[in-house]
């Protein structure tokens, strides 16, 4: 199976701000994956620190 993560980053933010926001998203969702069965079809939208949807993760069969 394949874990797919897609995040749209703010092109107007500095590289440092983009890295910080992406790091926050990865830490948050990495810590919450234990709440999922982690089977193909599982997934969830991703939100930035302003609670705006910026992407999603999903598990798909290879």
Distance between the termini: 5 Å
Shape: elongated
Number of domains: 1
Give the low-pLDDT segments.
Answer: none
Output the radius of gyration. 12 Å
Please write the string of helix (H) and strand (E) elements.
EHEE
What oligomerization state is this entry in?
single chain
Strand numbers in spatial order across the main sheet: 1-3-2
**Mean pLDDT rating:** 94
Largest sheet: 3 strands, antiparallel
Task: State which percent range the strand residues make up.
Answer: 25-35%
- Give a count of the beta strands, DSSP E runs of length 2 or more: 3
Query: What class do helices, strands and sheet pairing give?
Result: alpha+beta
Number of helices: 1
Q: Percent helix among the residues? A: 25-40%
């Amino acid at each position: 199976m394949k874990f797919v993560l897609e995040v749209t980053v703010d092109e107007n933010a500095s590289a440092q701000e983009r890295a910080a926001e992406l790091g926050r998203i990865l830490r948050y969702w990495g810590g919450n994956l234990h709440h999922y069965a982690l089977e193909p079809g599982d997934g969830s939208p991703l939100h930035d620190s302003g609670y705006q949807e910026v992407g999603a993760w999903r598990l798909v069969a290879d």
